[in-house]
Amino acid sequence: MVDRIAAEVNGEIILQSEISERLFQMKSEGAIKNMSDKEAEQSILNSMIEDRLIIQYGKDKKIKIEEKEITDRIDQVRLGMGTDIDQFKLLLKGQGLSFEGYKKMLADRIMVQTVLSMEVRSQVHIAPESAREYYDAHKEEFIIPGTVKARHILRMLPQGASAKEDKAVLDKINEIRAEVLDGLKFSAAAKVYSQGPSARKGGDLGYVEPGQMVPAFDKVVFSLKPGEISEPVKTRFGYHLILVEERKPSELPPFEKARAKVLDKMYNNLVKEVRSEWITSLKRQAFIDKKETSK
């Protein structure tokens, strides 16, 4: 199949396959929420155009990303995942990425971070004495959301499963639910039956915040009362049973306790504002052509 040009940025092209690859990765990481594929592709394209402009700017300024910086970042990521280099390459392959492609993506990311630090973050300064005024005017931004302490049991469902396979998994999760309702401890059932990574901990998810889980799971977990076990919940991973053990209500921390978060919020807001103005100035000086095939 012939690849399509999605956009041209100062003579450099962005291919439709690059957008599709980024979309696949974001879906794999659960980063696409409340957005159609078409909307997500447009968002990704806009982000890639901005990144391309920043990278071009960095190259014009003779900024170089050393190989050691890239390999150090890779080692940091894979060691955090507890994998050796061969296992890491296999994980990348499962996400549709080659090792060399990942290195290139990482080099671009480091370049973007370096340029933004130099041209945007270095220009942002916050007066600490203004923090109280911001807190008083934006208290809703600092409310700590209510959380629930939850456990779950997952029976996995493969992608593209048939109706027969779906029913088999649903029947199994209903059998497990019946056992739990009949007296089997939920944590013990999770250790025996769950196919999720939390199985060895009895399905313990710790305290869950709104928006932390996939939407279908999130909706149910915040509707349950302590001690209540859900009906089977279907997500892209399979079927879940959810148990809520405890609920913590939302709260507004006093200013002194929230001061550091207030300053961070003010700083990040100003960074976004300065970044937007700087990117706009780059776009004014650039040739950007979005092709009709990308819409």
Please, what is the CATH homologous superfamily of the largest domain? Porin chaperone SurA, peptide-binding domain
The number of helical segments is 10
Main sheet properties: 4 strands, antiparallel
- On the 0 to 100 scale, the average pLDDT is 92
Could you please describe the fold and organization of this structure?
- By secondary structure, this protein is α+β, with helices and mostly antiparallel strands.
- The chain has 2 domains: 5-125 and 265-294, Triger factor/SurA peptide-binding fold; 145-248, Chitinase A, domain 3 (Roll).
- 52% of the residues lie in helices and 14% in strands.
- Strands 4-3-6-5 form a 4-stranded antiparallel beta sheet, sandwiched between helices.
- A hairpin with a 2-residue loop joins strand 5 (233-235) and strand 6 (238-248).
- Helix 1 crosses helix 2 (37-60), helix 2 packs across helix 5 (99-119) and helix 6 crosses helix 10 (255-284).
- The protein is globular.
Q: What's the topology here?
A:
Elements: E1 5-9, E2 12-15, H1 16-28, H2 37-60, H3 67-81, H4 85-94, H5 99-119, H6 131-137, E3 147-156, H7 163-181, H8 186-193, E4 204-208, H9 215-221, E5 233-235, E6 238-248, H10 255-284, E7 288-290
Antiparallel strand pairs: 1-2, 1-7, 3-4, 3-6, 5-6
Helix pairs in contact: 1-2, 2-5, 3-5, 6-10
Characteristic key phrases:
four-stranded antiparallel sheet, alpha+beta, 295 residues, Chitinase A, domain 3, three-stranded antiparallel sheet, 2 domains, globular, 14% strand
